[in-house]
Amino acid sequence: MIPGYRTVDLSLPLAESLPASWPGAVPFRHPIYDWFESRDTELGPLVSKGPFHTRWLMLAEHTGTHFDAPTHWVPPPGSGLPGAGPAGATSTDRVPLEQLSGGAVVVDVAATVGRAAPGESPRIEVAELEAFEAEHGRFEAGEIVLLRTGWDERWVEGPAGRGYVVDCVFGRSPGWPAPTAEAVELLADRGVRCLGVDTPSVGACEDGYPAHFAGLSRGLVYVEGLSRLGDLPVRGAQFVFLPISLRGGSGAPGRAVALLPEG
Question: Which tens digit of pLDDT belongs to each residue from 76-88?
Answer without folding.
Answer: 999 999 999 999 9
